[in-house]
Structures are given as C-alpha cells and as structure tokens.
Specification:
The chain contains nine helices and 16 strands. It is α+β, with helices and mostly antiparallel strands. It has a single domain, classed as Sandwich (Jelly Rolls). The protein has an eight-stranded mixed β-sheet with strand order 1-2-12-9-14-7-6-3. A four-stranded antiparallel β-sheet has the order 8-13-10-11, with no helix packed on it. A hairpin with a 2-residue loop joins strand 4 and strand 5. The chain starts with 9 loop residues before the first strand and ends in a 7-residue tail after the last helix. Bound molecules: L-homoarginine, 2-oxoglutaric acid and fe (ii) ion. The site of fe (ii) ion has 3 residues, from loops. L-homoarginine binds next to strand 8. This is Fe2OG dioxygenase domain-containing protein. It comes from Tetracentron sinense (Spur-leaf). Keywords: Iron, Metal-binding, Oxidoreductase. InterPro entries: DIOX_N, IPNS-like_FE2OG_OXY, IPNS-like_sf, Iron_ascorbate_oxido_reductase, Oxoglu/Fe-dep_dioxygenase_dom. Belongs to the iron/ascorbate-dependent oxidoreductase family.
Length: 327
Amino acid sequence: MASNFDSIPIIDVSPLLSNPEGINMDDPIVFQVLEMLHAACKNVGFFYVKGHGISDTLVRGVREVSRNFFNLPLEEKMKIKLSSTTGYRGYTKLLDNKTQGKQDMHESIDAYKEFTPGAYGPIGENFEGPNLWPAYPQELKQMMEEYGVALEKLSKMITRGIVLALGGSPDIFEGDRAGDSFWLMRSIGYPGSGGAAHPSAIGCEAHTDYGLLILVNQDDNVTALEVQNRSGEWIPAVPIPGTFVCNIGDMLKIWSNGMYEPTVHRVINNSSEFRVSIPFFYEPNFNAVVEPLEFYKQKTGGGVAKFNKVVYAEYLINKVRNNFVHE
Ligand SMILES: N=C(N)NCCCC[C@H](N)C(=O)O
Ligand SMILES: O=C(O)CCC(=O)C(=O)O
Ligand SMILES: [Fe+2]
C-alpha cells in the first residue's frame, strides 16, 4: 500500500538493459536497481524511469506530432472518431472521455495492439481494429508504431526487474500471462486553464490503471499529474526531462497477491499551456486469466490467495464500456 511518501523515486534502469543476455543478478549495481524497484512498487506505486535508452527524438517527437494533431480543427479530428464500432480505437473529443463516471477535460487518440480479427473469440470482437490514424500529421502513424515497439520492450524489462527483485523467475509474466500484451497507447491533450477549460477543471479524475505497468511520457513544462499518498495528500509528478513516469496497475495487485498495489492518481492542468502526455499501458494478454501467483502467495499471506481470479478481457471491456460519453 502507498506509504506517506512525499516524493516519487527516480530509478536509473540502464544496468538492467546493458546486458543483451539478460539481467545479470551477480552485478551489485543491478542488485541495487532491483531493490529500488521493489521499494518503489511497494511504498509508492510510482517511480521515474531514467536511463531507458529510448531516443529523445522519438520521445519528444510523438508528443510534438500529437500536439500538431490536437491543434487541428475538430471536424478534421472527428474523421478518426473512436466508437464501439471502431474497436475503441481512434479520437475522442474534450469531455467525451470519462474516468470513474466523471467527464475528463482531455481529448485523446487510443491505439491498441492490433490482432487478426477472430483471434480472441467473441469478446475480442469488441476491440477489433485496425487503429485509426489521421491523414495529418501524416507521420503520426509511423512514429507511434515505432514508439509502441520500443515501449513494449522497455515495459517487459522493467516487469522482469520487478519479479527478479524478490528472486522470482524472470519469465513469470511471459507466455500466457503477458507475453503477448494487449497494450494500449494513448496520446492525450489537456487544455490549459486559459483555453477551452474553466479553471481547475479535472483533466483526468482520480483512478488506478487497469493493467500491469504504465509508462507516461509527459510534457516538460507543465506539472499536472498528481499521485495520492496514504494520508490523502496529492504529490505532484513534476516533469523530469528524459524520464518516464512509471506506475503499476490493478492486475499486478492480483498477480502479486497484494505485494504491490496501484496508487490513485489524477491530472489537473492549472497552467495556461496545452499539455500533452502519452501513457503506454502494458497489459496482460487479452485472454489472460489473472490470479495470485504461487511465487507471490509464498511471499505474502502464507501461501493463501487474497484475490479471486479475473479474466483480463472481461475486466477491460467492463471498464472501457464506461469510458466514453458517446459511442
Ligand atoms: N486499457 C486501458 N488500460 N485503458 C485505460 C485508459 C484510461 C481510461 C481512463 N482514464 C480511466 O482510467 O478510466
Ligand atoms: O496524463 C497523465 O499524466 C496520466 C494520465 C493517466 O493517468 C491515464 O490516462 O490513465
Ligand atoms: Fe492513469
């Protein structure tokens, strides 16, 4: 559970990425990184990731190109409108996103992992693609696709680090669990309070995220993401250039039998600037059956499962059906 943290730790993950053969547990520097990952997941549920190896050009580029898209006239943006008939892929205008039943002061483009129609059975039909990309800026599709590949790899390595920290098998989340992650990436635009929004409008209502691990690529010049500690105080995730803000999701709580719990967070853009952020949601496989793992049951609660199992696709569709004002 979140402690009374007053800041969000910064973790340099480069030692986890430097060995192409895998993570070298005998390296004392690696060991230190793993300890930090465990402590951050356990006490805060959030940490900054630096030393991730993803080029600044790509990280800034996807934000700039997304910003150029959000600057287009609404009519143009609505050409790629998200609905229940587009597999929940595409653009959603201001106030049409809902979090915890409240309308959010943000607009977004959602892109999920693409899959062959039929591959996930009847429930999978809800999410059948393809992703919808705009004609302008024409480079958005290619940049986001490159970004998705890079972020999936990074998420996988951080997830391995979290498991290794307690001495688990590094591939515990591979295969049927998250080896074929049904990831989502969202480009999000939050108007400044001088713009379309009224002052202090909630950009994204307080919530936890659904999946395994989330990496947020946020603008450098606006502080808007806030993370709640145990006393209920909101701790700002002040942008640190060159980092991602990483947090854990609901499914990691179940898999880890409560060792790690997601932390409530929200977004309020009180600045006069339009803010862009791009969370990458690293999720279980679409059809994953998520239940407390033996390894974590031994580490928590004396081998007893504290949570019932969940089929990720069912959990997801129940959430997503309530995420939009219009379909
Ligand atoms: N597949 C996933 N993870 N979707 C999460 C999107 C976030 C929706 C919204 N902010 C909410 O939290 O309700
Ligand atoms: O924009 C952000 O910084 C985070 C957004 C978020 O929490 C979400 O979309 O789940
Ligand atoms: Fe979130």
